[in-house]
Amino acid sequence: MRFLLPGLLTLPLLVPPVQAGPVPRTDAPAEIAERLAAEAKAQGLVLDGAIGWEMDFEGDGTTEWLVQGIYPFPGGNAVQVSTFLFDGADAGYADREELDLPRSLKAVDQDGTTIKLVLYEMREGDARCCPSGESYRMLFIQP
What we know:
Number of domains: 1
Order of helices and strands: HEEHEEEEEEE
Number of helices: 2
Strand content: 35-45%
Shape: flat
Largest sheet: 5 strands, antiparallel
Number of strands: 9
């Protein structure tokens, strides 16, 4: 039993850790922002910014990106967002897919290949710029 115990204690070190909990928001990589800006320009839009959340969606030790492109409406302070999943730098930030999300992301949590999204939602009486409600969406990533 003495010889098995040290081996069992080292076993968890061989398994890569699974990120669980809140994922910090950051600027999207420049390569992704430049690509979104070029696509927006081709459609007559302007990209006002690109924010991202870097995660290992697939559990393979490489990171991927959840990104929101921010596009302003002319003559106001409201914005439109588009949400994308991108592969990471190791794959040249290739597209994974565009998600159909109606609002800006407030928070992102990850537990392995399950991603919980907290979206801002408009409540009655909210100005277009300032939603005060929340809704939730779950993404289940299949590697």
